[in-house]
Amino acid sequence: MIAALVLISIYAVLATIAAILLFKHLSAGQSSEIDYKNLIQKKTCALYFDVNGFLRSDIDSSNNDHAIKGLLKNQNIKDYNGRIKDLDKYFNMCIKYKRTITYKSEETKNGNIVKRTDLIFSPYIVNEELKGVSIISQIMYSSSREADLIAKAQNLTEKNVVAQTQIDKLDAERIELEAAFKKSSQHHIKLQKALYRIEQQKQELENALGIINSQKEDLERMNSEITRSNHMKDVFLANTSHEIRTPLNAIIGFTNLLLKMDHDEKQLKYLENIKNAGNNLLFIINDILDLSKIEAGKIELEKIRFDLRDLVDKCVNTVSVKRDNKEITITIDIADNVPAFVTGDPHRINQILTNLLYNSVKFTNTDCRINLSISAISRENGSINLAFSVTDNGIGIPKEKLSDIFMSFTQANEDTTRKYGGTGLGLSITKQLVEMYGGKIEVESELNHGATFKFNLILEEADEETDAKQPVASSDLSSDAPLHILLVEDNFINQQLAIDTLKSWNKNVMIDIADNGQIAVEKVVNTLYDVVLMDIQMPVMDGNSATEAIRHIGSANGKVPIIAMTAHALEEERNRCLSNGMNDYIAKPFDPDELFAKICKHAGIKVEQQQKSTNKSTAGKSDDNSFDISPLIDVCSEDYNEVKNVINVYADYVPNDIKGLSSAIADNNTEQVRMKLHSLKTAFSYMGISAASELTEAIGDNIEKHDTNNGKLIDELTEIWNSTLPKIQEHVKRLVNQENN
What we know:
Helix content is 52%, strand content 21%. The protein is of the alpha/beta class. It has 5 domains: 121 residues; 105 residues, PAS domain (Beta-Lactamase), CATH 3.30.450; 158 residues, Histidine kinase-like ATPase, C-terminal domain (Heat Shock Protein 90), CATH 3.30.565.10; 105 residues, Rossmann fold (3-Layer(aba) Sandwich), CATH 3.40.50; 111 residues, Four Helix Bundle (Hemerythrin (Met), subunit A) (Up-down Bundle), CATH 1.20.120. The strands form 4 sheets. Strands 6, 7, 8, 9, 10, 11 and 12 form a 7-stranded mixed sheet that branches. A 5-stranded antiparallel sheet has the order 2-1-5-4-3. A 5-stranded parallel sheet has the order 15-14-16-17-18, with helices on both faces. α10 links the parallel β14 and β15.
């Protein structure tokens, strides 16, 4: 029995020592700072399928280490038997909605390393025709502070269980010793000592257990605080961006206005300095937000057909402006094997080139000479691998610092930051954007011998389009039959267009106006109309809701023919209108003959038709393709004076709608944002300003994604409008003069 007690005592002492050492180890580990890295490694591959689901090409930059394995060229996606279920379902969703769809196929943690695999289904659309789907497999490895904390917490939990087990064992031994004590008074003293030691050891273990539990709670609290901190960082960046951009846009905008006024040389210098400082600040804000978006995986590359040479010219012209008393000379060398048009994200490609060119300008002395060269490396299945290089004669980079310059908030040395300024984000953002295109960037440089940045982008080739259009034949429908029409439209300009168009066609038409769906329902209850022309997106009550309410009217009034007249031209919108009880559908900007034909059809009016030849598309199109007012000419029945009047109305309303859109976004007024976007889309459609239409679509997409960073898009929208409106007015003026002569 004594030997057993001795062994128990020795074991208890060892357990105590182990617990104390464990506590010290945990305490030491607690004080160390966990180093969170940015992206450690990213592997991507791209598979291209045609619309029928057959694999046509793959571009793999990760040695076949990707999520989709087993498919060979010309196999169908339905044949895939890998670990990802319903792969063809996401493919079909992408085909059906023509939208990019992201599917997180895997996310695993191994110790302090997180591995995440995403599949990105992107439709490839050319001239509004779906050509196929690219599936990007993206594998990312990164360090995880949360994973490390969770692992430590789990480790503490396990040690907690071990300690508790030891306490239970000691309790059992204490009970046995107490029983032995009652049976044998001879060992009373020894048993008392053994019991004392056991109680002491138990107390020490309980103390260690309390410390372990406290450390576990601290780790869990730290994990929660990190999660909350990341969320607060996103909120802070969004709010800070808005609060800085609002006054900054005013500063830059009013400075631009002042620059157009008369002023002396000193005032001009001051204004230029203000503008340059404002632009630099805006550039820094954009860099910070872009970095945050990239790290959060919130940036998606657009697929837009654009002129690569035109983009390069505009980028170079922007950077070439003389600044800081530097003479800047930039030469461009684009190889003949580079296509004129490619498909990609022109904004992000411009950002890459601008970052590198500005970087070269910043780190050169008074005589700045830069060469930008582009050539095609290879072509495969409609994709082209383009090689870019930017070479300068600047201060250069020490060889030992070359590996650091692409890290966030890092420059070659502290003296560089103090002398040349900057946040050290430009090259980090550039590197990550290049890698999103499946490319790689590297730098060659020596101190005082300039630098050369080389990178490649994998884009899609786009066919050149011809702008020549042949005159088309249309029907001239005429009718003087009495008609009573209810026009349901909230936009004043659209009301005037519709009224003038209808009255130019039928002098006996009587038109009532309803500014929203609720007013329309009230009017239909009291009046029997021949036709209702119904807008969809309106305040108070939208067109679909108004139609449903009209169809519930018990009298014959509730059976009035309703024709949807909306800027939403998608097939889903048409089907929704018809399923809600409408009789027909026409998209804005509408073709007058098509509208007249639909009105006559549903009002039961016979009309005379005469074939006529028209070439309005040529008369309405600008030489530089910046606008095409053919739809407006069509609506106004080729009355150029009427076109002029409508343009003048747009000149008053569009700037106010843009300002209203900006205010609505700032106020987070979703309904007002929707209404202003609807109004602007209609205006830009009638005037054929495609660049402005694309921007309104992009703003709308951002709003749906809860992305509040629309300040730059609204600035671009304003700039396009201000530069295009004078061209349209001059063009219409020439048409009026030609008509009068």
